[in-house]
Amino acid sequence: QLQLVESGGGKVQPGGSLRLSCTASGFTLDASTIGWFRQAPGKEREGVSCISSGGGRTNYADSVKGRFTISRDNAKNTVYLQMNSLKPEDTGIYYCARGAYVSRCRPSEFGSWGQGTQVLVSS
Fold first, then answer.
1. Side-chain-side CA neighbours of residue 111 (13 Å)
2. Which of 30, 43, 58, 60 could form a disulfide with 74 if both were Cys (CB 3.0 to 4.6 A apart)?
3. pLDDT (tens digit, 9 = 90+) per residue, 55-66?
4. Are the C-beta atoms of residues 20 and 117 closer than 8 Å to each other?
5. pLDDT tens, position by position, 74-112
């Protein structure tokens, strides 16, 4: 069964940091573009950041540029999302998924969704 698994979420104060991890079960990530997405309560799922299979190309939502960094370690079959300077509006469930194009970093273009990991930014 092909499945992605997210981890690393939690509660953090505004200005804090978290690092999310996305690992794969049943397949290797090294041939896949991987994206991070989030869904806040009452809102639609949105793209946060995507990375190409080799890691050479990345894409970020304007709202997270300069604060979040996506990276991957194909030897560990893991994609990371380092989140710094977190804001309350970053709160939501964060998902990783597999897609084809970094330039199309939107939920409709990605699949093999994980179950998500909750991020809560609150004082």
1. 2
2. 30
3. 999 999 999 999
4. yes
5. 999 999 999 999 999 999 999 999 998 999 999 999 999
Across 1-123, the runs of DSSP E, i.e. the strands, are 3-7, 10-12, 18-25, 33-39, 46-51, 58-60, 68-73, 78-83, 92-99, 110-111, 117-121
Dist. CA 99–CA 30, nearest whole Å: 12
Q: Is residue 20 within 8 Å of 41, Cβ to Cβ?
A: no
Structure tokens belonging to residue 58 = 């990345």
Interatomic CA distance for residues 33 and 60, integer angstroms: 14
Position of tokens 């092909």?
Answer: 2
Per-residue burial over 86-105, b if 16 or more Cβ lie within 10 Å, else e, is beeebbbbbbbbbbeebeeb
* Chain centroid to CA 15: 19
Strand-by-strand arrangement of the 18-25 sheet: 3-7, 18-25, 78-83, 68-73
Write phi, then psi, for 72 (nearest 5 degrees): -145, 150
